[in-house]
Amino acid sequence: MEQKTLTLRNTPDHCQIYYPDLVEATLPDRRRVLWLRRYWWKFKRNFWYLSILGPFRFASRTRFFTKLRQILHIEGWDTTHSNTNDPALNLQPGDWVEVRPLKEIFATLDNDGKLNGMRFEKEQAKFSGGRFKVYKKVDKVLSEADGKLLRVKTPTILLKEVFCDGKAHGGCDRYCYLFWREAWFKRL
What's this model's pTM, rounded to 2 decimal places? Predict the structure, then answer.
């Protein structure tokens, strides 16, 4: 009877994870259609904004109309943050909050769909109008891209039992916490 031996790439004291395979698996994606996927995601996000805001408010937030308003000095097309002047809620862990309706949240976003650098994601929309308990106030974040510890200057909140389901990100199964700005809440 033949005896088969298992050789693990001729490396002594080999563990379950072979380092060169791990490096190869974590290298950037070099597929040629990756740029096309990014445009597709941007198109879907803009279509989602259009369905929430309506055609006139969506068009007034585009760069073309913003520049046109600046050139013609037209007042009344206010596309800046409208709810960011609200007093700070100073939320603490254990406080109960209600997520504002989508139209109120979208009124706080700038032309790029962000509030103070943070984008409102499609996964967060299903939680609008819901009541949740504050889990944590975020002060620091570890960047996965470069491993640096970043300070968060604007109040950012994590809610208890509110996770990203990943459906809008190609079926991601990480179930990360969603980051929220205080301006997107009402205190209960």
Answer: 0.63
